[in-house]
Design goal:
CATH class of the largest domain: Mainly Beta
Oligomer: single chain
CATH architecture of the largest domain: Distorted Sandwich
Order of helices and strands: HEEEEEEEEHEEEEEEEEEEEEEH
Number of helices: 3
Bound molecules: zinc ion
Distance between the termini: 35 Å
Strand content: 35-45%
Shape: globular
Largest sheet: 8 strands, antiparallel
């Protein structure tokens, strides 16, 4: 009887915490472009780093979770998360498995968008630097939305991670997911956040970046119109822009990217979050 009582007490204490997490975590996928979740049992909130990049930590005392974005170009095999707790350093090891992403061949009629001229290159270099800083933003908040709503209505037209060839020339893999929709279709925030940057970029066209906290950044590209200003606070389903075809684009669609620790990851892992 006494043992049963203890068991019930343990269940009462343990289950609610796991349920809270079960509702909030993205889907784990230990492959390039995926997300790895590591449990950390320390009293105080630790700090965690993956290849020197600060990693999101959520949870509460003795029940922390590190949410790690895994780069598309990572080596297959064992990797480690460096955890610092009250000055003491420890390593958490985990395995990354192989995933074969398909190749995609695209024809871009505007050749300047594939082989930019000298003037374009100067602009692109500036934009790459600016965008890199935006993706590196860190806002230290504890409650982070890890369950997203789809940002526009329409079918997925290009998967995340495709190995891309523009006019038969190899380029970076597809760092987001494409949703096909008519020009002017509303694009909405998938979760609460702050508009940290808007701009009209050479490749990405009219773009909005949202900061959801602790390095979770989302990006919306090729917009026809931008309907938010930098610094604005948005809630789930708030209008941020409309679908368009600005920048290097083959037709009206939304390109949507999700970044964790400055690494692009599969957006669907947040849409179908556990
Ligand atoms: Zn895309």
């Amino acid at each position: 009887m006494k043992n049963k009582l203890i068991l019930y007490l343990v269940l009462i204490l343990v289950i609610p915490i796991n349920l809270v997490f079960a509702d909030k975590l993205p889907i784990e996928s230990n492959v390039p472009g995926g997300i790895v979740i590591i449990s950390i049992q320390t009293d105080d909130k630790p700090e965690a780093f993956f290849y020197k990049r600060k990693v999101m930590i959520i949870g509460s005392s003795n029940n922390w979770k590190a949410i790690i974005g895994i780069p598309l170009k990572i080596e297959i095999g064992e990797h480690k998360l460096k955890v610092i707790n009250n000055g003491a350093e420890s390593n958490y090891f985990f395995e990354i498995l192989d995933k074969k992403y398909e190749a995609q061949y695209l024809t871009i009629k505007n050749k300047r968008k594939v082989n930019p001229n000298k003037e374009d290159m100067e602009r692109i270099t500036k934009e790459i630097k600016l965008i890199k800083n935006v993706k590196n933003s860190w806002r230290e908040i504890n409650s982070i939305p890890l369950k997203f709503q789809k940002p526009t209505v329409g079918p997925y037209s290009s998967a995340f991670g495709l190995r891309r060839f523009f006019n038969n020339q190899p380029r970076n893999p597809h760092g987001g997911i494409d949703i096909a929709a008519a020009e002017g279709t509303p694009v909405t925030a998938p979760a609460a956040g702050i508009v940290i940057n808007t701009g009209n970029y050479f490749f990405n066209g009219k773009t909005v970046f949202l900061d959801h906290g602790q390095g979770l950044i989302t990006m919306y590209c090729h917009l026809n119109e931008i309907n938010v200003a930098e610094g604005a606070h948005v809630n789930t389903n708030d209008l941020i822009g409309t679908v368009g075809s600005t920048g290097r684009s083959t037709g009206a669609h939304l390109h949507w990217s999700v970044y964790l620790n400055n690494t692009t990851v599969e957006p669907l892992l947040f849409l179908n979050a556990k």
